Amino acid sequence: AQSVTQLDSQVPVFEEAPVELRCNYSSSVSVYLFWYVQYPNQGLQLLLKYLSGSTLVESINGFEAEFNKSQTSFHLRKPSVHISDTAEYFCAVKLYNFNKFYFGSGTKLNVKP
Amino acid sequence: ETGVTQTPRHLVMGMTNKKSLKCEQHLGHNAMYWYKQSAKKPLELMFVYNFKEQTENNSVPSRFSPECPNSSHLFLHLHTLQPEDSALYLCASSHPGQGLNTEAFFGQGTRLTVV
After folding, report:
1. Interface test with A, best of B51, B103, B111, B112 (most A CBs within 10 A)
2. A42-90 pLDDT, tens per residue?
3. Would you call the peptide bond into A18 cis, given omega within 30 degrees of 0 as the criterion?
4. How many interface pairs between A and B have CB atoms less than 8 angstroms apart?
5. CB distance A43–B4 less than 8 Å?
6. CB proximity A104 to B under 8 Å
7. Exposure letters B73-107 (e unless 16+ CB within 10 A, then b)
C-alpha cells in the first residue's frame, strides 16, 4: 500500500529564516514525487516535481526539494522565507503506471514578520 | 489560472436539494479526478476517470454521483446531502500514465455548504 506522511501539521517561522517541511512516503513500486501549495480558498498549485535524474529539484520562487530513495523522503526547503510564502503545502506521490495521486495531510507554513 | 475551471465557486444547498458541480479542462488531459477537502482532514480522493471511464470509486456514498461525458468535462451530481458533506470539492486533471507532464492540475474548487 502507498502512503504519504507529512510529519508537521504546522510550522511557524520568522521572515527571512530557513525552513524545512518534511515528507516521507511508502510505496512498493516506483513513484513520481510532487509538492503542491494551497493559498486560502484556492486549489492546489504545483510547486515542484521529481520524475527522474538529479535528486535535487528547484522551483522558480526559491524552494527546493531533495529525493532520498534510501530514506524514502522528499523534504521541501527554502533558505529564506517571505511573508507571501504563508500557505499550506502538500506532498504527493503518483505511481508510475497508475493515474492516482496520494497526498499527505498537509503542513501549514506560517511566516511571521 | 491552471487551465481547470470549476463552477460554481460557492454553493449553499439544503439537504433535500439536487445540485451539480461542473469541472472543465482544455489541457488535452485524459484523466480527471474529484477530491474532497474537509477542515482538519487529509485530501480525500473520491473518483477517477480515465478516457471517460470510471476507474476508481473510493467508497463514496451514492448521494454523490459523478458523470464524465467526455475527456474535457466532469460533473458531480449531489442529492440529499448531509451537513458533514460540507467541504471544498476539488477537480483535477492529468495526462494518464508516465511522462514529463504527469502532474495533476487543480481547479480552484467549489466551497459547498449543506444546511
Report:
1. B103
2. 899 999 999 888 889 989 889 999 999 899 999 999 999 999 999 999 9
3. no
4. 62
5. yes
6. yes
7. ebbbebeebeeebbbbbbbbbbbeeeeeebbbbbb
